[in-house]
Design a protein that fits this description.
This is PleD family two-component response regulator. One of its GO terms (biological process) is phosphorelay signal transduction system. Pfam families: Response_reg. It comes from Rhizobium aethiopicum. This protein is α/β, with parallel strands linked by helices and 268 residues long. The protein has 2 domains: 118 residues, 3-Layer(aba) Sandwich (Rossmann fold), CATH 3.40.50; 134 residues, Response regulator (Rossmann fold), CATH 3.40.50.2300. Helices cover 45% and strands 18% of the residues. The chain is built from 10 helices and 10 strands. The strands form 2 sheets. It has a 5-stranded parallel beta sheet with strand order 2-1-3-4-5, sandwiched between helices. A 5-stranded parallel beta sheet has the order 7-6-8-9-10, sandwiched between helices. Helix 1 packs across helix 5. The longest helix has 27 residues. It is globular and about 55 Å long. The mean pLDDT is 93.
Length: 268
């Protein structure tokens, strides 16, 4: 990962962490990668002062769960209450804590339990800072399902459009040619996910648009049918946040790789 400093001009990142080792490693890594100088807050008082001292919005916070002066998670609650996008960087973790973190709509959580923890944190930060370049379309006849997926994607800083049926999806794609990923339900009343995918593939290839199908059905063969119709991936509901985000990232990474190779061939 290498980026010019201009890409992230005006980006303000706060690191709420009391470990000198980790704050030094994080500061050095983000400076190397993004030319960003982070603000270090070693206790809860520092965090509150950092927020109050400037009217410039905080782009992203990286926070330990337990901070001096906020040993019971008050720092994370403070950031969440202020609607500041937050990545939790913690060495304290168990399944119950994971559920609580996800419920708070944090951006991500990284476990500092191995030597690659800072690199994983840097990758998560990079994705958050660059996800806005990706436009994602959600197609589902359920307003609740659309809202849930939209909320998840916006949490990760994606640009999101929604469509309540296949006809609306086709219209949206025609108007928004920058959409690079579509997530579509299988069971819809007018045009189901299979037919929608087939119609799209008649005009738009996988090098322009990745398609992930989703379904609540217990029929395991749906994935095979969807892939044969031109889809790139398929997930059965209910799926967990980490799996969903990983599959989205994998498809968008593949899209960027394909587009990069096509550009190189065109130049050659």
């Amino acid at each position: 990962m290498q980026y010019s400093g201009e890409m992230f001009a005006g980006t303000r990142i706060i690191v709420a962490e009391d470990s000198n080792v980790f704050t030094s490693m994080i500061s050095k890594r983000l400076k190397e990668l993004f030319d960003i100088d982070v603000e270090i807050c070693r206790n809860f008082e520092d965090l509150q002062f950092s927020y109050d001292k400037s009217s410039d919005p905080i782009t992203l916070a990286i926070s330990n769960i337990n901070l001096p002066g906020a040993e019971n998670g008050e720092a994370l609650e403070y950031l969440v209450d202020l609607s500041i996008p937050t990545i939790v960087f913690t060495g304290t973790f168990h399944e119950g804590m994971r559920d609580k973190l996800i419920a708070k709509d944090i951006v991500d959580y990284i476990l500092k339990d191995n030597i690659f923890a800072v690199d994983l944190l840097a990758e998560s930060i990079c994705r958050f800072l660059t996800n806005h370049r990706h436009h994602v379309l959600i197609v589902d006849d359920s307003a609740t399902a659309r809202a849930l997926l939209s909320s998840r994607l916006k949490r990760y800083n994606f640009r999101v459009s929604t469509a309540e049926n296949g006809a609306k999806a086709l219209e949206t794609l025609k108007v928004n040619r920058d959409i690079g990923l579509m997530i579509t339900d299988y069971n819809m009343p007018d045009i189901d996910g299979f037919e929608l995918t087939r119609r799209i593939r008649a005009h738009i290839g996988s090098h322009e648009l990745r398609i992930i199908g989703v379904s609540s059905s217990s029929n395991r063969l749906l994935s095979a049918r969807f892939l044969k119709a031109g889809g790139n991936d398929f997930m059965l509901r209910p799926f967990i946040d980490e799996e969903f985000y990983c599959r989205v990232n994998q498809n968008l990474d593949t899209l960027l790789q394909i587009q990069s190779m096509r550009k190189e061939r065109a130049v050659a």
